[in-house]
Amino acid sequence: MYAVIMTGGKQYRVQVGDSLRVEKLAAEAGDSITLDKVLMVGAGENVAVGTPYLEGGEVSAKISSHGRGKKIRITKFKRRKNYRRTQGHRQAFTELEITAINAAGFSQILPVALSSGEESEPESDAAGDLDTGFEET
Hints:
It is built from no helices and eleven strands. It is mainly β. The radius of gyration is 21 Å and the shape is elongated.
């Protein structure tokens, strides 16, 4: 099951258990937050699309950490005028871990951690069986 959410003016496709970096959110590390701007939810063949958002759709996440990205350098230069300016910028971000996806008719919650001896089998990916109409040679 997956959801498409919107935060910080960007759209992200998320699944339960995913970690992602979003624009900085005003909350402490370790807090749980609810993202209510859910654009779409899908599970297998079932898909629900909002106009623009799904009514009652929400994605729960836990804030792992805050940080700042790699520095980028901005340089202004005018030839023959001895004019050079350099400026740097580091964008602040928040690291999230998705814990639950809820929408009308859809629901998935992060399972409890497995004991050390057990391993979960990965779910089959339906996109790998996609018929493109081309034959492999």
